[in-house]
Amino acid sequence: MPKTRLPLLKEDKPPKKVSRKITIILLLLFIALLAVIFFRSSVSRITEIHFQGGKYTTREELLSQSGLSIGGQFFAVSKTSVKDSLEKLKTIQDVSVQKKFPGVVTISIDEYPAVAYELDQGGTLKAILSSGAAVSVNDTGIAVEKPILTNWKDSDPYKAKLCQALALIPNELTSDISEIVPSPTLSFPDRIKLYTRSHFEVITAISLLKDKVEYLNKVIETEEPGLIKMLEADSYVPFQAAPAANEENADTLE
Question: Is residue 148 domain-shared with residue 236, that is, in the same domain?
């Protein structure tokens, strides 16, 4: 009698694809859980904020403008955003942002240089930066070789242009200028008067100042105090000529 073979029963095994999907889902859930725990921990927070190079801008102003705060999310800090925000301040020329894990943000600031000073209506001395911004100098001290701006209105567009022009001139060429006053005319709406520590009076224009300042210093170094005009043409007249003329007139009257 022939032997009858019974078919072997096969165990039901879950498809490999389904098993792999479950593994991936569990792995993703685990990663998400770790991420939640990490971002809620103090390790992911800002613990230190350092500002370097700020002279005319307070820490409070910098923090407010940057949007940074102790305890904020470290990984949410965008270097570009912080840089762009801070450079909107009229005192700041350039910014560099560095992040160091865990939690340290260091911001290096390059401010606009002071090119002049000004007394406001309350008698407070302000430093005028090359951007045109006026900042207090109570805590920063003053550089005596910078000129004083007198009778300038904050709304005067030529005030900012003057600051920009002064920033382009080496300090040694402007160190003798003690005061700058607006003196506009129809022909030269940007005309100014300069008074020097060596007792010269100078008439020029903001748009010409950079090109004319070398002539000014040559006259100051070689001539007696007098009136210097540096407009379309340059001229110099010593002050002592006027008293001499007055003496001649007095002799004639006698």
Answer: yes
Shared domain for 101 and 161, answered yes or no, is no
pTM: 0.71
First to last CA, the chain: 169
pLDDT tens per residue across span 117-172: 988 777 778 889 998 888 887 655 566 678 999 999 888 999 999 999 999 998 88
Tell me if 127 is assigned to some domain: no
Q: Is residue 61 part of a domain?
A: yes
Which amino acid does the sequence have at 96? S
Q: Encode pLDDT of 7-56 as tens digits.
A: 555 555 555 566 777 777 777 776 777 666 656 666 778 889 999 988 88
DSSP state of 42: G
Print the domain residue range for 94: 44-111
Token duo for residue 189: 């709406």
Q: How many CA atoms lie within 13 A of 26 on its CB side?
A: 6
- How many domains is the chain built from? 2
